[in-house]
């Protein structure tokens, strides 16, 4: 790798609190300590680092010699648990403030094998074939927000190709991402900040987003066949897909996508609540056809693609 | 990790597998209460090729430093297996099969308990109680029948609590003065975490999972108290009155008073000190007593 220390190539910030407020938080950590920071920001900034956020990592081979790139590392929720089991994690993000926070958090947790880099996904300062694993958790859907490419899909393919180049032979790319046709998008908002855009044909979503937001629709998600095509175009031949519940940010249950029996077992044997949704899920589990249909509306996926 | 799992299963569980059973499938699973911490277990259900039900339950940890969690769980299960060997109660628990520890990864393999989680109601609570009473009765029979008085029970529980000497002394005084209970009970191993999440139901009956706290208490009733408490705290006393007399009779205990408070205090103390967030040396007896008085005021016993 070219860089051994923190390098800043770009600086873009977004988050639950303003950048100025985040800077204040960093000052508090420095001057008054973590306890005061935690007390003042506990309701405004989600800085929890549950160790199960990276539980998907059990599905791929990682060991104490592995070097990992966490692209779009944010506040380090994936970097921290991974750093405990690998040789080194390079946490990369477009925000200087977030990376400063992540560095402090790693220090306080005694994790000295996390390196922070501030860079854009399209311009990362690493040599080819540097990593055993590249993590893109909740990032691929956002990379279309760029002027570098004609459309979001092109940007996503370019991004995947960049990752492929950075992976060692046999290395893995992990992507945590939503299903375009997730049932929850019928009652909630899409990444665009608008309702139903993921369900619309792209041309319609484009026009609608332009009308409502003043820019194109640029946060593409896909269904399974869409992801398969996307990864194939980027040079990854046979990615493995997993259904993840309740979502890729909290992978309590991870089910191989291709194995409907395991999905049925999960719905029938492991969900003991009597909520309406769970009752419906159990009804669905009685029929293979309904189960197959239900799988197409699952909220999110873990995707592993090997180089 | 999956590759290591598969290699170890292939090498050590040959009697359970044929070539056609591969590739195996893995379902990573945890409940809301399973824990997301560094030292909590991570569970995988393992399925043979084409199977609809798992045949193995694999338990590991996120961090090798936390390997004690796996060792404890596996050894506890082996204890239960040994206690129930050759009896009809073997089906109540999984069977411990193999422990892998290569200095970097640790995981245990046990048979997958059949069945599913169901919402507990009064009817299936009765079924649970019938199975559980029989199991505890069997253990009591094996134990030889010697019993302990309330004073002995209190002394043993408080000594095991890890509290400082002065706190132990004060707690003994509190029990002697305020919580007299006329009772003699045998020593019977308790599951230690008999929650709704840990009960699985199938056509073959009940199966109890999660063996982290097996043996944390040997005071009969501790499991029932925990289950009733989580099932319906408002009716805790009613449930105790409904089930405890038959249970104590089944295990050969003597319970000639309806004053449950002394027993409840011992159960509470055991739960309090086994709570991972409490460090026994730092807990004061006043804290335990006030916690108990708040949770179970005298009025709740009338």
From TrEMBL, chain A:
CDD domains xrefs: AdoMet_MTases
GO annotation (BP), single: methylation
InterPro entries (alphabetical): Methyltransf_11 (IPR013216), SAM-dependent_MTases_sf (IPR029063)
Domain Methyltransferase type: 69-175
GO molecular-function term, one example from the UniProt record: S-adenosylmethionine-dependent methyltransferase activity
Keywords assigned by UniProt, alphabetized: Methyltransferase, S-adenosyl-L-methionine, Transferase
A Pfam family per the record: Methyltransf_11
UniProt cross-references to PANTHER family, sorted A to Z: METHYLTRANSFERASE, UBIQUINONE BIOSYNTHESIS O-METHYLTRANSFERASE, MITOCHONDRIAL
Protein name: Methyltransferase type 11 domain-containing protein
Organism: Candidatus Zambryskibacteria bacterium RIFCSPHIGHO2_02_FULL_43_14
From TrEMBL, chain B:
Residues annotated as domain Aminoglycoside phosphotransferase: 171-238
Bilayer-crossing regions: none
Any Pfam family the entry gives: APH
InterPro entries in alphabetical order: Aminoglycoside_PTrfase (IPR002575), Kinase-like_dom_sf (IPR011009)
Stated name of the protein: Aminoglycoside phosphotransferase domain-containing protein
Native source organism of the sequence: Candidatus Zambryskibacteria bacterium RIFCSPHIGHO2_02_FULL_43_14
């Amino acid at each position: 790798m070219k860089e051994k220390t923190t390098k800043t190539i770009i600086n873009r910030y977004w988050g639950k609190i303003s950048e100025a407020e985040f800077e204040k938080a960093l000052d508090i950590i420095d001057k008054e300590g973590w306890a005061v920071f935690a007390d003042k920001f506990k309701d405004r900034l989600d800085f929890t680092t549950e160790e199960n956020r990276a539980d998907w990592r059990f599905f791929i081979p990682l060991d104490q010699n592995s070097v990992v790139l966490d692209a779009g590392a944010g506040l380090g929720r994936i970097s921290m648990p991974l750093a405990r089991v690998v040789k080194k994690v390079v946490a990369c993000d477009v925000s200087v403030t977030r990376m400063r926070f992540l560095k402090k958090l790693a220090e306080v947790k005694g994790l000295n094998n996390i390196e922070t880099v501030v860079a854009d996904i399209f311009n990362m300062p690493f040599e080819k074939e540097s990593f055993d694993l590249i993590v893109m958790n909740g990032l691929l859907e956002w990379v279309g927000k760029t002027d570098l490419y004609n459309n979001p899909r092109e940007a996503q393919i370019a991004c995947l190709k960049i990752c492929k180049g950075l992976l060692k032979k046999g290395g893995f790319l992990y992507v945590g991402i939503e299903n375009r046709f997730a049932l929850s998008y019928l009652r909630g908002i899409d990444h665009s900040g608008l309702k139903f855009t993921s369900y619309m044909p792209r041309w319609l979503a484009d026009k609608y987003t332009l009308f409502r937001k003043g820019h194109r629709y640029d946060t593409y998600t896909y269904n399974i066949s869409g992801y398969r095509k996307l990864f194939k175009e980027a040079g990854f031949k046979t990615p493995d897909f997993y259904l993840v519940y309740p979502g890729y940010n909290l992978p309590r249950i991870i089910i191989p996508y291709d194995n409907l029996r395991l999905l049925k077992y999960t719905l029938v044997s492991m969900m003991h609540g009597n909520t309406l949704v769970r009752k419906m899920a159990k009804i669905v589990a009685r029929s293979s056809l309904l189960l197959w249909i239900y799988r197409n509306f699952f909220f999110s996926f873990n995707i592993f693609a090997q180089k | 990790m999956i590759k290591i799992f598969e290699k170890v299963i292939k090498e050590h569980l040959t009697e359970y597998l044929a070539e056609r059973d591969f590739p195996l499938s893995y379902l990573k699973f945890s409940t809301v209460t399973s824990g997301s911490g560094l030292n909590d277990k991570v569970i995988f259900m393992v399925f043979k090729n084409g199977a609809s039900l798992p045949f193995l339950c694999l338990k590991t940890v996120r961090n090798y430093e936390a390997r004690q969690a796996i060792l404890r769980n596996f050894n506890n299960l082996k204890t239960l297996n040994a206690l129930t060997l050759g009896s009809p109660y073997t089906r109540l628990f999984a069977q411990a099969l193999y422990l892998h520890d290569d200095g970097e990864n640790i995981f245990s393999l046990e048979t997958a308990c059949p069945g599913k989680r169901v919402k507990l109601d009064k009817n299936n609570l009765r079924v649970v109680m019938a199975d559980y009473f029989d199991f505890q009765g069997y253990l009591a029979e094996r134990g030889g029948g010697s019993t302990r008085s309330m004073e002995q029970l209190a002394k043993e529980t408080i000594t095991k609590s890890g509290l400082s000497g002065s706190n132990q002394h004060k707690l003994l005084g509190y029990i002697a003065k305020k919580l007299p209970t006329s009772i003699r009970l045998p020593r019977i191993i308790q599951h230690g975490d008999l929650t709704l999440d840990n009960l699985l139901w199938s056509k073959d009956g009940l199966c109890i999972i999660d063996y982290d706290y097996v043996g944390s208490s040997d005071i009969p009733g501790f499991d029932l108290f925990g289950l009733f408490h989580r099932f319906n705290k408002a009716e805790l006393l009613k449930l105790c009155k409904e089930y405890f007399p038959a249970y104590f009779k089944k295990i050969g205990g003597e319970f000639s008073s309806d004053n449950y408070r002394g027993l409840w205090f011992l159960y509470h103390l055991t739960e309090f000190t086994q709570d991972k967030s409490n460090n026994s040396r730092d807990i004061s007896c006043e804290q335990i007593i006030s916690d108990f008085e708040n949770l179970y005021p005298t009025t709740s016993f009338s």
